[in-house]
Automatic annotation (TrEMBL):
Skewed-composition ranges (Polar residues): 1-13
Protein name (Swiss-Prot/TrEMBL): Uncharacterized protein
Domain of life according to the entry: Eukaryota
Organism of provenance: Perkinsus chesapeaki (Clam parasite)
Ranges of biased composition (kind: Low complexity): 14-23, 67-77, 87-98
Region (Disordered): 1-23, 58-103
């Protein structure tokens, strides 16, 4: 019954081959699963890295915007201060010119007053001479 023994050996060989195929299939599936998990993990890490880079870029952009807004605010404040200083300087110059005008008018009035006094003194002294001449000509009679 060599043919029976041969059939048994063939069955055992087939059984071993089937087990070997199942083992290899299981190994292949495990490797595929490990590869899939590894790829998924790498993709997740890539996405996390990308998200972190975007977050950092947004932070840098926010800081840049804040800095720009602060610079613009500082420039507006400086411009407002410059305009205020210019207006104050103009007011001071106008007040100084007005003061100078008043001073000039006052000096002019004082000169006019001096001329009038001087003119009155001359008129007074001329009047005195006329009276003296008149007295010399016409004797004074207090009656």
């Amino acid at each position: 019954t060599t043919s029976g023994a041969q059939t048994m050996v063939n069955n055992e060989d087939q059984q071993q081959q089937l087990q070997q195929q199942q083992f290899e299939e299981q190994q292949r599936q495990q490797q595929e699963e490990q590869q899939r998990q590894q790829q998924q993990q790498q993709e997740q890490q890539r996405l996390q890295l990308q998200a972190e880079q975007q977050r950092q870029q947004l932070q840098v952009e926010r800081e840049r915007q804040q800095q720009q807004e602060q610079q613009e605010q500082q420039q507006r404040l400086e411009q407002a201060e410059k305009e205020r200083q210019d207006a104050l300087l103009q007011q001071q110059q106008q007040a100084q010119r007005a003061g100078e005008n008043v001073q000039a008018q006052l000096s002019e009035l004082q000169n006019e007053i001096l001329k009038m006094k001087s003119g009155n003194n001359e008129a007074s002294s001329e009047m005195g001479r006329a009276i003296a001449i008149t007295r010399a000509i016409v004797p004074y009679d207090p009656k």
